């Protein structure tokens, strides 16, 4: 059997790039994807296992392994968007040695296989959020809803104000880039934190639920902040109507899907039970998750928000355990692609102090890192209520910016608002907050484990007494 | 959290297409993929379930559903390689309504999302062959090895000779297009047949093993035939050295991987048992399967041949059952993409007899179909040995050409060898053989079920008597 590609690309593979080379280029895309996946999986397993051995969360090892195979070191996994060209990629070099492609084909294969890996990584984070939604207990989440909202709001306002003012007052920076850098401090990477929480078995704890809830709300706020600063950067003024639209639609989407989900639940179970063919549970679940992800995207929110809402809804069904079981292998093969790719895209060369740009960036970075960490850690103390919670753990859980911060840096760079040192500073801040959060979180939960256990005992006593 | 795409594409999304539109186009690719997957999954489940209801194999329903959502009817899933442009795609039209992309972005989004879906479909067939390898018993396959080889050889030689001579002698066709059309008759689609066999519970029967073995060998022969006729079409002469290379490398690859696999087995189990993190079994298995698929591709064989060999090797480990269990959900979400896409790519408009080209094509098609069916059915009677086998079922199992035949048609069309009527005839032959094989196969196994059961009883008696 021949790969399907050969026939398809023989006619009109790429709209503007239809050349005779397409016939030879097309099967190469599949080969490139296969080889990239082998490198990604090897890196994720090596990194994850080593991390586990030294008692750190596996996801941290996957990120570091991603950095090692990525643009900073081995070049096994590089992406054209970061400015890399085909000859920078070891995968393409190997394909080239095997097939002797012509230069046009090389560029096309490189772009196509990078696109496929990028989308697989995004499907990975969608499945991750779906799985997190499945594991999150809606009633638990509702219990922490108000507290999560406060944590999220403090975690957006504090670093934004401190960062922006600090850059203007201390570094004498113009307002617009300072606002942009401040905005980059507001994000929280739900992917990394929730993976670590899950690995620590803390996803369902009160702290875990507050962090996840706050990170989701932070996502919503982050979308709004980005829309605001992007329009500020573009036009010099803020589009109030758009800001209001984003706030209302995001809130309505989450609450609406949870509300409608109560009715949808029973139909879902009924459908899954009627289906006779293979995939009777997992395919309807993915149809729902992908539809919700698409819907969220269609109303200008984020796909992952939809996947998370879908998981929350299906969590309430009788089929939950069975579905959990079937989603695990799917998540196992897709989620590592996301984390390794996040690592692979980080360019550590901005840390090299021999360049003057980098030195200036390092000083600003140091400031941003301090604001980023303190601005989020204080959120733990915004939690009210009688229940004893691990405030430090909540604050630390909000620290990692992950890929979200990189998006701010990228859009800022593309719009010309951020100069090189400020870009470098934001990237360094993102790297550091992403990498320190997992071990700190483990430490925060570990060190207060006794206290938490005591709190549980107290709570048990209290409920027994009632 | 923002999609990663936005940052990456803001710089240099496509090598030759870097425009300001990239920033808005990039998250649209993910949206397009999500929507396409929703359509694919809906089609596969509806088709599969309806097919099951009327007692036909689900995979046939998936194919038909693919035709309905594809280029022939609903246009929910169309591919640029068949000549479709962005505005033909309902997915792109929906994206367009949501986001109002500019014309350049549309073409780019259409090409990228089609590329991603194509690669997902190919990963689907790779996982399918890996799963079939896992389910195939190597010792059983070795038992049927010689018989499978004979079936495959007869199934390649008979339709090729009859088809080529018939086209020359009856239709007065020139030699080279006749040879090409004859070559298109030789293929066997292992994907469709083995899925049906698996659904009928016949994959591990002697007949099932002969069919799968013969289909694998047919793949190898098909690669060689394609290489030969392609070089014939290009240069007018056959490259003997290449033919010999292909025969030796394909045989060496399969036998070599099975031989080395005996030693690799134990290391694989040892590694999987040592790993502590999630995906400890499925990720090493996929690393192995994808590496083998890449290796097969690298030595100019087919990726699916490598995946099948990998499955055969891992089938012999103690972890087989656990691995089977974990591969199922992965196959459930990837394999339907393959079958729906095969259906979606079939253009039924070539069946419309109102065009003169189509009428001429239909006559040739009728001839090709007869040769295609008879040429494969006789292979059942090439099976020797004392054991009583269902010869009709074996012959029918070899009938479907599936996507393999479409590849021949595509390459022939691209090289200019095949004119429109002959192209149409080959496509009709492929469609019909693909669609009739599953119900016929079910009939053949059903009608001779009693005979087969008697044969089993006889065999039991014989073994008891010994």
The number of distinct helices of chain A, counting runs of at least 4 residues, comes to 18
Question: What's the multimeric state?
Answer: homodimer
Quote the average pLDDT of chain A: 79
H and E string of chain A: HHHHHHHHHHHHHHHHHH
Number of domains of chain A: 2
Write down how many β-strands of chain A occur, each being a DSSP E stretch of 2 or more residues: 0
Q: What's the CATH C level of the largest domain in chain A?
A: Mainly Alpha
Structural class of chain A: mainly alpha
Radius of gyration of chain A (Å): 23 Å
CATH topology of the largest domain in chain A: Na+/H+ antiporter like fold
Shape of chain A: globular
Biggest pleated sheet of chain A: none
Proportion of helical residues of chain A: over 70%
Question: Could you tell me how far the N terminus lies from the C terminus of chain A, measured between alpha carbons in angstroms?
Answer: 70 Å
Percent range for β-strand residues of chain A: under 5%
For the record, the CATH architecture of the largest domain in chain A stands as Up-down Bundle
Largest protein interface?
Answer: A-B, 106 and 106 residues
Low-confidence stretches of chain A: 1-24, 450-466
Account of the 3D structure:
Two copies of one chain form a homodimer. With 466 residues, the first copy, chain A, is mainly α. The first copy, chain A, folds into two domains: 20-120, no CATH class; 137-344 and 355-446, Na+/H+ antiporter like fold, CATH 1.20.1530.20. The first copy, chain A, has 18 helices and no strands.
């Amino acid at each position: 059997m021949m790969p399907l590609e050969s026939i398809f690309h023989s006619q009109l593979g790429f709209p503007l790039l239809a050349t005779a080379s397409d016939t030879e280029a097309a099967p190469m895309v599949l080969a490139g994807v296969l080889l990239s996946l082998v490198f990604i999986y090897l890196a994720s397993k090596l990194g994850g296992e080593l991390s586990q051995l030294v008692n750190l969360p596996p996801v941290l090892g996957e990120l570091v392994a991603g950095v090692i195979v990525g643009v900073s070191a081995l070049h096994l996994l590089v992406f054209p968007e970061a400015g890399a060209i085909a000859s920078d990629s070891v995968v393409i070099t190997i394909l080239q040695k095997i097939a002797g492609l012509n230069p046009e084909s090389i560029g096309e294969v490189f772009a196509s296989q990078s696109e496929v890996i990028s989308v697989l990584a995004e499907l990975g984070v969608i499945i991750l959020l779906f799985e997190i939604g499945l594991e999150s207990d809606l009633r638990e989440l509702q219990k922490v809803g108000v507290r999560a909202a406060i944590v999220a709001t403090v975690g957006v306002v504090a670093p934004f104000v401190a960062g922006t003012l600090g850059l203007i007052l201390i570094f004498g920076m113009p307002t617009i880039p300072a606002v942009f850098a401040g905005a980059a401090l507001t994000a929280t990477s739900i992917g990394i934190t929730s993976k670590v929480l899950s690995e620590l078995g803390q996803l369902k704890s009160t702290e875990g639920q507050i962090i996840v809830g706050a990170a989701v709300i932070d996502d919503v706020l982050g979308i709004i902040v980005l829309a605001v600063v992007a329009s500020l950067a573009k036009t010099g003024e803020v589009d109030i109507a758009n800001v209001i639209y984003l706030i209302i639609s995001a809130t309505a989407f989450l609450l609406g899907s949870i509300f409608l989900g109560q009715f949808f639940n029973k139909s879902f179970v009924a459908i899954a039970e009627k289906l006779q063919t293979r995939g009777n549970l997992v395919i309807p679940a993915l149809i729902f998750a992908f539809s919700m992800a698409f819907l969220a995207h269609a109303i200008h929110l984020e796909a992952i928000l939809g996947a998370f809402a879908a998981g929350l809804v299906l969590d309430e069904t009788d089929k939950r355990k069975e579905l959990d079981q079937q989603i695990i292998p799917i998540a196992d093969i897709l989620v590592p692609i996301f984390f390794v790719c996040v690592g692979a895209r980080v360019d550590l060369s901005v840390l090299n102090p021999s360049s003057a740009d980098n030195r200036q960036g390092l000083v600003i970075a140091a400031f941003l890192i301090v604001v980023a960490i303190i601005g989020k850690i204080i959120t733990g103390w915004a939690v009210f209520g009688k229940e004893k919670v691990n405030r430090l753990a909540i604050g630390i859980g909000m620290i990692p910016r992950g890929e979200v911060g990189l998006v701010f840096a990228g859009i800022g760079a593309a719009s010309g608002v951020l100069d090189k040192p400020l870009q470098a500073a934001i990237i360094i801040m993102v790297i550091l907050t992403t990498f320190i959060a997992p071990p700190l979180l483990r430490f925060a939960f570990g060190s207060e484990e006794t206290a938490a256990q005591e709190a549980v005992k107290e709570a048990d006593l209290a409920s027994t007494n009632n």
